[in-house]
């Protein structure tokens, strides 16, 4: 998969060299390219922003550099046979980034992220490319960041771990909170490891019982309890039949 990022702070994307995404890169599952937007400016000060039409606070990113950057990145990827491009535009006014969207994006061959600073990018850039390719305006949550770069790190990590061969154990995202499948719609419950007693606190007896049916039911109950406490909104959308199936399958 080809991951491209166009940013005025390419150094901010350095963590893409590390950990899981870095490992995926090293083994060739991911081709990551980070571009400096200022490459596509032509004035001495490499200007990327200007004052907003209609007035108001803050600055808006000029359409010129973004248009040239996207045209260049799209042409180069097309020449390299990268497939159909998907443009991901991080913005607090986008639609929510979810596990489902991460899964959909993980199935694509070429993603281009355009994190913005200031008050965002001139709207005409989004209108221009929306008609030329698949484009998603995406938010990672109900709070405002100073720029989209941190959101790109979040999204690329969520997507990269779904690529084949990136996680050590393909089973390890089956029960993830939000993963599609048996525990869909519930948060994950608590986990334990050795020693069996730590500071006088014992591991729940059921987990050492060896009784797989009881363990599955306990995990389901704990997941329900935690979801009710932290995310009551998710309980309404959860399918009781899927929970019973989880009990039987495990
Ligand atoms: Cl994608 N960008 C910014 N600047 N703030 C955000 C966001 C994105 N998602 C949530 N807050």
Automatic annotation (TrEMBL):
Signal peptide range: none
TM ranges are none
Q: Name one GO molecular function term.
A: tRNA (guanine(37)-N1)-methyltransferase activity
Stored InterPro entries: Alpha/beta_knot_MTases, tRNA_m1G_MeTrfase_C_sf, tRNA_m1G_MeTrfase_TrmD, tRNA_m1G_MTases_N, tRNA_MeTrfase_TRMD/TRM10
PANTHER family for the chain = TRNA (GUANINE-N(1)-)-METHYLTRANSFERASE (PTHR46417:SF1)
EC numbers listed for it are 2.1.1.228
Query: Any idea what this protein is called?
Result: tRNA (guanine-N(1)-)-methyltransferase
Location in the cell reads: Cytoplasm
Function as written in the Swiss-Prot or TrEMBL entry = Specifically methylates guanosine-37 in various tRNAs.
Record bears the keyword Methyltransferase? yes
How it assembles, according to the record, is: Homodimer.
Which keywords does this Swiss-Prot/TrEMBL entry list? Cytoplasm, Methyltransferase, S-adenosyl-L-methionine, Transferase, tRNA processing
Q: Which SUPFAM superfamilies match?
A: alpha/beta knot
UniProt organism field: Streptomyces aidingensis
Q: Where does S-adenosyl-L-methionine bind?
A: 140-145
Q: What is its main location?
A: cytoplasm
- tRNA methyltransferase TRMD/TRM10-type domain location is 1-235
CC per GO annotation: cytosol
Name any Gene Ontology BP term.
tRNA N1-guanine methylation
Q: Which family does it belong to?
A: Belongs to the RNA methyltransferase TrmD family.
S-adenosyl-L-methionine as a keyword of this entry, yes or no, is yes
Task: Give the EC class as a word.
Answer: transferase
Instruction: Give me the gene this protein comes from.
Output: trmD
Q: Which reaction does it catalyse?
A: guanosine(37) in tRNA + S-adenosyl-L-methionine = N(1)-methylguanosine(37) in tRNA + S-adenosyl-L-homocysteine + H(+)
């Amino acid at each position: 998969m080809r991951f491209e990022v166009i940013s005025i702070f390419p150094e901010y994307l350095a963590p893409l060299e590390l950990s899981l995404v870095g490992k995926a890169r090293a083994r060739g599952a991911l081709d990551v390219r980070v571009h400096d937007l200022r490459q596509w400016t032509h004035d001495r000060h490499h200007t990327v922003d200007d004052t907003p039409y209609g007035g108001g606070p803050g600055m808006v990113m000029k359409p010129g550099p973004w248009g040239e950057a996207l045209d260049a990145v799209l042409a180069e990827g097309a020449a390299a046979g990268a497939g159909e491009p998907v443009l991901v535009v991080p913005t607090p006014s986008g639609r929510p980034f979810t596990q489902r969207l991460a899964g959909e994006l993980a199935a694509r061959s070429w993603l281009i992220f355009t994190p913005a600073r200031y008050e965002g990018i001139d709207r005409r850039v989004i209108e221009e490319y929306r008609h030329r390719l698949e484009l998603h305006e995406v938010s990672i949550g109900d709070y405002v960041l100073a720029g989209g770069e941190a959101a790109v790190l979040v999204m690329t990590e969520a997507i990269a771990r779904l690529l084949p061969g990136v996680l050590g154990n393909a089973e390890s995202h089956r029960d993830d909170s939000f993963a599609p499948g048996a525990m869909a719609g519930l948060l994950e419950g608590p986990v334990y490891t050795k020693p069996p007693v730590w500071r006088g606190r014992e591991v729940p007896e059921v987990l050492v019982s060896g009784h797989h049916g009881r363990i599955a039911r306990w995990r389901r109950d704990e997941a329900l309890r935690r979801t009710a406490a932290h995310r009551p909104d998710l309980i309404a959308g959860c399918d009781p039949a899927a929970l019973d199936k989880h009990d039987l399958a495990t």
